[in-house]
Amino acid sequence: MKKFPNFSIVQREPALDNALRPKSLSEFIGQERIKERLSLIINAAKKREEAIDHILFVGPPGVGKTTLALIIAEEQNAQIKMISAPAIQKSGDLIALLTGIEEKGVIFIDEIHRLSPSLEEILYSALEDGSISIVAGKGPGGRVLSLKLPPFTLIGATTRPALLSTPFRDRFGFIATLDFYTHEEMVKIIERSQKILGLNLSYESIYEIAKRSRGVPRIANRILKRIKDYVDLRDNENIDLAETKKVLELIGIDENGLDELDRKILFTLKDKFSGGPVGLKTLAAVLNESPETIESIYEPYLLRIGFIQRTSRGRVITPLGLAHIMRYHHDQ
Ligand code: ADP
């Protein structure tokens, strides 16, 4: 069979990021109910010597969806192939991915809501009857062959579950919605990560980083890596709270956990649209960002901390959001 080109799809990540990833469910902090359910599903499948049921992880970026997929494959001692949906362009790519998987192997598709409808259809039938149809030959002599697939596990990750068709969504045995982490959980995650990075931060510094990480482990890890840069350059493993704050300021994360673009969104709402309301597309165009990025990455946090509001006529800045940027302005 023809070998398809892009199995380099298994993304290589920098060693540091790999070291920071929890390698087992017991190392994975928080999301207790999800871990319990996963543990049940994994152990039952192991006992029956079957592939683990298909799983869909729903949640904002950076909260552990990929990490859990890797842990599941590890627990099952199975091969895992990882790809992001936009990288699957032709049906041939998807078919190669499906036919190339070994028994009980895991296929992880990130941003699964971005699969085209025709690819979603192929995947749906693969989940439904464990086989796929391939057209062999061209023209009137072409025949449709049905190819049986080995039992496998599909793990999807999405920030926008509503964009999956209902029948497709129903094929997942477990839909796990990952939430933002609580402050206490973030403290534990930061304590774990900083040790792996060889840092020795005080509780005050850890607390400060937790406060500014918006409940997202990836953001906390990113901050810690910049702190590590700072520490490595100074050959001094201890930094105090004032220096921690300095690094945070240097990378543009303010005391509410807002970054440059968050503030730009608030300033744009205030200065260009008199506080709003303004539609998502117009706002995104002015900011030179995609509406999807604004809606799925930036807005949820600004809404959660009450700095903006979504009304039927568009987005508005709240008095709280206004007060924040006014203060920011004065501090500059
Ligand atoms: P997602 O796939 O949801 O975008 P990832 O699984 O890539 O997020 O997680 C981002 C980073 O955050 C990972 O490198 C991992 O080290 C860390 N992380 C995520 N969740 C946890 C957790 N519960 N405990 C410890 N670290 C975590």
Lay out the secondary structure.
Layout: H1 15-20, H2 32-48, E1 55-58, H3 65-75, E2 80-84, H4 91-99, E3 106-110, H5 117-129, E4 131-136, E5 143-148, E6 153-158, H6 166-170, E7 174-177, H7 183-196, H8 203-211, H9 217-234, H10 241-250, H11 260-272, H12 280-287, H13 291-304, E8 308-311, E9 314-317, H14 319-331
Bound molecules: adenosine-5'-diphosphate.
Adenosine-5'-diphosphate binds next to helix 1, helix 3 and helix 9.
Task: Tell me what the structure shows.
By secondary structure, the chain is of the alpha/beta class. Helix content is 48%, strand content 13%. The chain contains 14 helices and 9 strands. It has helices spanning 15-20, 32-48, 65-75, 91-99, 117-129, 166-170, 183-196, 203-211, 217-234, 241-250, 260-272, 280-287, 291-304, 319-331, and strands at 55-58, 80-84, 106-110, 131-136, 143-148, 153-158, 174-177, 308-311, 314-317. The strands form 3 sheets. It has a 5-stranded parallel β-sheet with strand order 2-3-6-1-7, covered by helices on one side. The chain has a two-stranded antiparallel sheet with strand order 4-5. Strand 8 (308-311) and strand 9 form a beta hairpin. Helix 4 (91-99) runs parallel beside helix 5, helix 7 (183-196) crosses helix 8 (203-211) and helix 7 (183-196) runs parallel beside helix 9. Mean pLDDT is 90; it is low at 1-11. The structure holds adenosine-5'-diphosphate. Adenosine-5'-diphosphate binds at residues 17, 20-22, 28-30, 59, 61-67, 157, 189, 217-218, 221.
